[in-house]
Amino acid sequence: MRTLTAFVPLFLLASAAFAGELPAKYWIHFTDRAGMSLSRAEPAALGVSERAVRRRAKVGLPAVGTDDLPAAPAYLDALRSAGARIENTSRWFNAVSARLTPEQAAVIARFPFVRSVEPVRSFTRPFLPEASGAPAKADRTASVHALDYGPSLAQMTLINAVKVHDAGVSGRGVLVGMLDSGFRWKVHEALQGMKVLAEYDFIQKDTVTANEGDDRADQDSHGTSTMSLVGAYKPGQLISPAYNAYFMLGKTEYVPSETNVEEDNWVAGIEWMEANGADVVSSSLGYNQFDAGQTSYVYADMNGRTAKTTVAAAIAARKGVVVVNSMGNEGNTAWKFLTAPADADSIISVGAVNGAGTYASFSSTGPTSDGRTKPDVAAHGVGTYSAVPPGKVSLYSASQQGTSLATPLVAGVAAMLLSARPELTPVQVREALRATASNASAPNNTVGWGIVNAYAALLYHGLVAGTDPAVTAVPGGVSVALSVLSPVPVQKDSIRLYYSIDNGASFNDVPMTLGLIADSATNSGRYAGTVPGVTLSTDMKFYVRAKDQSAARTAPYGAPAALFSTRESVSIVIDPPAPRTFALKQNYPNPFNPATLITFYLPKSGAVRLAVYDLLGREVAVLAEGYRAANTYTVRFDGTGLASGVYLYRLTTETFAETRKMVMVR
Predict the structure, then answer these.
(1) Where are the domains of the chain?
(2) Domain 144-459: which topology?
(3) Average pLDDT of 530-541?
(4) DSSP assignment, residue 30?
(5) CA angle 177, 181, 185 (to 5 degrees)
(6) 452-491: per-residue pLDDT in tens?
(7) Which CATH number is 25-124's, of 3.40.50.720, 3.30.565.10, 3.30.70.80, 3.30.70.920?
(8) Eight-state DSSP code of residue 68
(9) Structure confidence at residue 574 as a pLDDT band (50, 70, 90)
(10) Has domain 464-565 been given CATH number 2.60.40.2440?
(11) Closest CA to 654 of 600, 612, 611, 609
């Protein structure tokens, strides 16, 4: 048995040390990139995914640009030598955020490669009172639709998203990024089925976005609710627009007793999501009034080019990301106006209305200080039915209100549009939403172009086909049904189903006929065709081709290069941001019974050992040993068979060692 010696007293001393207040955060902007260039640079080497490359191409951008180059390593080393604790690195701004004393900031500002040093701002977010009135009850009129929305039917009907679901469009294939306070999705009945491909905590620097460690009890409440309004799926309770989308989660808002929201985390989050190919980013955060001792933004700064988050949102939009952000809840305050980054150009800023479609007085107003009308659109934001973290009286609430709740509904609609028409640019998505909204003929600075109409927006750019085909067994084969919709007459005899049972090497085709009619004037509706001689267990690839009076279209988009399959698979791989320093994180959950997760960071490849010991120094488990590539790792420790009590876990590399304690309670 290996025995742990010497380090136990040091650990106990460290745990008893006084933890002083952290130094303030500063932005440090560099003058250049120290000679780095894009010459022969491959996207993957710069952390830009193939998915991001394809999305950038549709807005006419090359695979990589200068703002994909990292900050110069020599500059980062010099900052660390000067005592800077680097928190986040921004490629887009060629800058880092770092913890500095005022004295360190003054010294670093004089470095020849430093262009400027300025404070990172942190917003104090006001809490809104809960909406009055009785909680929503299930509306059984949902039975006339394909899905049972329960109490969420009203908010989905207001934005006409139910009709889009009936047409077989639910966000499939779209990657949605969420930036918020945290997400307790794995244990909620309406969220645990969501296709989350990656999550990262930009505060704790780990891959856990639910509450952990010293997080306040309601830290992940806000994000859990907003996430549920994009993609929740619990029939009879809560169904949201893009329940078939993929998701990335970024925890960027820290909620201690004073509710501080630091803008550098938001910037880091949206850069990570863009590089990994997010199609839509939903953010229900805003920045204007800051903590005591900091310089707040003034209305003149709401001009689309001043606030860090605003500039970052605009960069993401230029790179092909549909950015959807809340206007803010300042309508009844002295500030009144929108909050950054809602002032960004080319993004979709969202205001709130009540269930009757009337402007909610708390919803921040436009215009931007340079005269642009805001918001762009509005959605349900008063008494909106949403999920809340388990542990409360109910798993759902109809008493919350805010533009925070309207925003994810609109983001979900944007994902629906991109699911059916992935070729659309952010400007085209915004145009479709604006032009078909309830106030499009007379946009104003309270509700903008008005309440979103998801179905009308879906058809705004012409012929579309559903993304969720229904495959069912019929005598002699299987039936494939798919909606084909158009604002002009569909050529019924043009609808054909192409199928392959040899992995796409060859295709046969059969006609599809109109069954369930959505609009008889345009021959829009659900078309079905029968594939003979196959069963539901057959590995079949297929696509649909359709025409109307003005265009032809395939479903899925890009077929036959892209195909539907009776055996759907997920092939998107997303890595967390590369760690900058060695670290061993506090296990989660803690206390635990019987298992817990331990995360550690390796900024350099090399030999690693992670082991668990009891308080006598006896080794009880080895969780990692041997060579590991530079990355963030999370391992599981199962304490089954061990006694309750305190255990120590220690990470050792060639140049780093750290120990932490954890508690198992039976």
Answers:
(1) 25-124, 144-459, 464-565, 583-664
(2) Rossmann fold (3.40.50)
(3) 94
(4) E
(5) 70
(6) 999 999 999 999 999 999 999 999 999 999 999 999 999 9
(7) 3.30.70.80
(8) G
(9) confident
(10) yes
(11) 609
Residue 15: the pLDDT is: 32
Q: What whole-number percentage of the chain has pLDDT above 70?
A: 90
pLDDT at 235: 96
8 Å CB contact between 659 and 11: yes
Compute the C-alpha angle 374/433/264, nearest 5°: 55
Q: Encode burial over 12-28: b for 16+ CB neighbours within 10 A, e otherwise.
A: eeeeeeeeeeebbbbbb
How does pLDDT run across 360-392, given as a tens digit for each residue? Answer: 999 999 999 999 999 999 999 999 999 999 987
Return the CATH number of the domain spanning residue range 583-664: 2.60.40.1930
Indicate the burial class of 621 (C-beta count within 10 angstroms; 0-12, 13-18, 19 or more). Answer: middle
Residues β-bridged to residue 397: 386
* Amino acid of residue 275: A
- Per-residue buried b or exposed e for 250-274, using 16+ beta carbons within 10 Å of the residue's own CB: bbbbbbeeebbbbbbbbbbbbbbbb
Domains 464-565 and 583-664 equal at CATH topology level: yes
Could you give phi then psi for residue 447, rounded to 5 degrees?
-120, 5
**Number of residues assigned to the chain:** 666
- What letters, b where the CB count within 10 A reaches 16 and e where it falls short, cover 81-99? eeebebbbbbbbbbbbbbb
> Which token pair is 464?
């579309």
SS3 429: helix
Q: Which residue has the tokens 């085209």?
A: 428
Peptide bond into 390 cis (omega under 30): no
> What is the arithmetic mean of pLDDT over 507-523?
96
Q: Rounded distance, CA 392 to CA 215, Å?
A: 17
What is the three-class DSSP state of 492?
Answer: helix
Token pair recorded at residue 665: 């309670």
